[in-house]
C-alpha cells in the first residue's frame, strides 16, 4: 500500500510539474559530476602532495594558464600583489625531517620540454635535515670564492633586495622553529645564531649573499631588458656542480643555454621559454625537476669534468685544458656514481618584475637510490631513452656501461622478490617522486 501511495504521488508530481523534475535531475547529475571530478583531482602521493602532470608530455598538448599583460619590453609596472602567508610546516624539524625523494624520470620515450607544474605557495622553499651541512658548505664557499659565486648587477639590486625581503617574511612563517622575524626588519636563525638586519642601508653584504645564507637553494634572478631578452643580473650559485655564475653572469637567457649546449634548446625550448618568461605573473609560481648522474662525490663542483677554476687548467704555454665530460674517467666503479636532481621554482617578483629561480639540489649515492622499489628499472629505462644529444649533454658515454649493468641487476632482484613487475610501471603515477 505504501508503495502504491508513493508511486501515485510521484506520478502526480511528474504530471503537474515535469519541467521542475527535469531541472532537479539535471542538477543532481551536475553535482555528481563535479564531486567525482574533485575527488579525482585530490588523488595524493604517499607524502601528501598532489600528483603532477606529465612533464614528458609535449608542451603542445598541455594548455597554458599564463596570461601576458600588455607592456613594452623591459618596462615593468610594480603590481599590488602579496604572497599568501605560508602555513607552518607541520612536524618539521631541522634535525629529523628527511629530504624529499625526488625521482623525476619515467619509462619510455624522452621528450625535451620545460616540464612545468603549478606550485603551492607553502612549498616555495624546502628545507630538511641537510640544512646544517648545506649552510656550512655555503658559508665556506662564500668565504673562499666571494663574487665568483654571489653577485648583483646595479640594475638587479632592487630585485635582489626584494627577494631577500620575501625570504625574510616567508621563512619564519613556514619554519618557525628555525627562523624568527626581528624588528625593525630582519631575520634571526635560531640554529646558527645569525641575525640579519635588512632595514639599514647600505646592507652589510650583497643581498644575494645574505639570501644564500638562509636557504639550501642556489638563487638566480633574470631581468628583462628593452630587447625583450631576460638577463642573469643577480645570483648566488654556490652548489651548481656543473656551471659557474662567473661564466654566465650578465648573459641573456638564450645565450646561457646555447653556451651550455643544452640539447634541443633552439628547436624545442627557446620559443616556449621566452613566451613563458614574458607572460609569467606573480600569482602563478611554477616548479620543475631535472636530474643528472655524477661520478664523484662533490656537491658543489664535479671535479670529474675538470677544475672549477680555469686558471688551474692552464697547460704549459698558457692554453686551457679541455673541460667537460670528455675529461672524466670512463666507467668508474658504481660506488663513485651519484644521483643528482634539482627541484627548481620560478616566480615573478611583483615590485621589480624579476623572475626568480630557486634551485635546490638533492645528492645521493646511486647505490642507495637503487634500493628503492621500482627505481632501478625506471631509471635504466630513462637513461636508455635519451637521444644522442641528451646523452652527450649528460655524459652517458663515460658511465653508461657500469650504471646500466648495475641498475639492470637491481631491477632483476626486485622482480625476483615480487616487488615489481617486469616493466615496473606501477610507479609511474607518483612523478616526480
List keywords for this structure.
single chain; 433 residues; alpha+beta; 7-stranded antiparallel sheet; 34% helix; 14% strand; globular
Q: What does the model show?
A:
Helix content is about 35%, strand content about 15%. The chain contains 12 helices and 10 strands. The strands form 2 sheets. A 7-stranded antiparallel beta sheet has the order 1-8-9-10-6-7-2. A hairpin with a 3-residue loop joins strand 3 (about 180) and strand 4. It is globular. Residues about 1-10, about 40-50 and about 50-65 have low confidence and may be disordered.
> Quick one: how many beta strands?
10
> What class, by secondary structure content?
alpha+beta
On the 0 to 100 scale, the average pLDDT is 86
**Beta-strand residue fraction:** 5-15%
Backbone shape: globular
Rg, alpha carbons: 26 Å
Low-confidence stretches at least 5 residues in length (pLDDT < 50)?
Answer: 1-11, 40-48, 50-66
Number of helices: 12
Query: Tell me about the biggest sheet?
Result: 7 strands, antiparallel
Explain briefly what this protein structure is:
The chain has helices at about 1-15, 20-40, 130-145, 155-175, 205-215, 245-250, 255-260, 265-280, 365-370, 375-385, 390-395, 395-415; strands at about 115-120, 150, 180, 185-190, 195, 220-225, 230-235, 285-295, 340-350, 355-365. It is α+β, with helices and mostly antiparallel strands and about 425 residues long.
Topology diagram in text:
Layout: H1 2-16, H2 18-41, E1 117-118, H3 131-145, E2 150-152, H4 157-174, E3 179-182, E4 186-189, E5 195-197, H5 207-214, E6 218-224, E7 230-236, H6 245-248, H7 253-259, H8 265-279, E8 286-294, E9 338-348, E10 355-365, H9 366-369, H10 375-385, H11 388-394, H12 396-416
Antiparallel strand pairs: 1-8, 2-7, 3-4, 4-5, 6-7, 6-10, 8-9, 9-10
Amino acid at each position: 500500500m505504501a508503495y502504491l501511495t508513493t508511486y501515485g504521488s510521484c506520478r502526480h508530481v511528474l504530471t503537474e510539474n515535469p519541467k521542475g523534475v527535469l531541472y532537479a535531475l539535471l542538477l543532481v547529475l551536475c553535482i555528481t559530476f563535479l564531486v567525482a571530478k574533485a575527488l579525482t583531482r585530490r588523488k595524493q602521493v604517499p607524502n601528501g602532495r598532489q600528483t603532477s602532470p606529465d612533464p614528458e608530455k609535449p608542451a603542445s598538448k598541455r594548455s597554458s594558464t599564463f596570461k601576458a599583460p600588455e607592456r613594452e619590453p623591459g618596462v615593468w609596472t610594480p603590481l599590488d600583489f602579496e604572497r599568501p602567508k605560508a602555513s607552518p610546516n607541520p612536524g618539521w624539524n631541522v634535525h629529523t625531517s628527511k629530504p624529499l625523494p625526488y625521482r623525476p624520470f619515467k619509462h619510455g620515450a624522452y621528450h625535451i620540454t620545460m616540464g612545468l607544474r603549478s606550485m603551492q605557495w607553502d612549498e616555495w622553499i624546502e628545507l630538511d635535515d641537510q640544512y646544517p651541512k648545506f649552510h656550512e658548505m655555503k658559508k665556506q664557499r662564500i668565504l673562499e670564492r666571494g663574487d665568483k659565486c654571489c653577485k648583483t648587477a646595479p640594475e638587479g639590486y632592487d630585485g635582489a633586495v626584494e627577494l631577500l625581503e620575501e625570504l625574510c617574511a616567508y621563512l619564519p612563517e613556514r619554519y618557525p622553529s628555525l627562523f624568527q622575524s626581528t624588528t625593525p626588519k630582519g631575520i634571526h636563525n635560531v640554529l646558527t645564531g645569525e641575525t640579519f638586519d635588512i632595514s639599514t642601508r647600505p646592507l652589510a653584504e650583497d643581498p644575494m649573499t645574505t639570501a644564500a645564507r638562509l636557504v639550501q637553494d642556489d638563487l638566480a634572478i633574470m631581468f628583462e631588458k628593452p630587447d625583450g631578452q631576460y638577463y642573469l643580473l643577480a645570483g648566488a650559485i654556490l652548489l651548481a656542480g656543473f656551471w659557474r655564475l662567473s661564466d654566465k653572469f650578465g648573459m641573456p637567457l638564450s645565450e646561457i643555454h646555447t653556451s651550455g649546449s643544452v640539447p634541443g634548446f633552439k628547436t624545442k625550448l627557446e620559443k616556449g621559454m621566452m613566451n613563458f618568461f614574458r607572460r609569467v605573473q606573480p600569482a602563478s609560481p611554477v616548479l620543475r625537476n631535472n636530474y643528472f648522474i655524477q661520478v664523484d662525490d662533490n656537491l658543489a663542483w664535479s671535479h670529474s669534468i675538470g677544475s672549477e677554476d680555469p686558471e688551474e687548467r692552464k697547460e704549459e704555454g698558457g692554453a686551457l685544458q679541455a673541460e667537460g665530460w670528455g675529461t672524466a674517467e670512463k666507467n668508474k666503479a658504481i660506488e663513485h656514481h651519484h644521483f643528482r636532481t634539482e627541484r627548481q621554482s620560478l616566480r615573478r617578483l611583483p615590485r621589480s618584475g624579476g623572475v626568480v629561480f630557486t634551485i635546490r639540489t638533492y645528492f645521493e649515492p646511486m647505490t642507495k637510490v637503487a634500493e628503492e622499489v621500482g627505481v632501478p628499472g625506471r631509471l635504466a629505462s630513462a637513461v636508455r631513452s635519451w637521444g644522442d644529444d641528451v646523452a652527450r649533454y649528460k655524459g652517458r658515454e663515460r658511465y653508461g656501461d657500469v650504471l646500466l649493468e648495475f641498475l639492470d641487476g637491481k631491477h632483476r632482484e626486485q622482480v625476483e622478490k615480487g616487488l615489481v613487475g617486469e616493466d615496473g610501471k606501477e610507479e609511474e603515477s607518483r612523478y616526480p617522486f
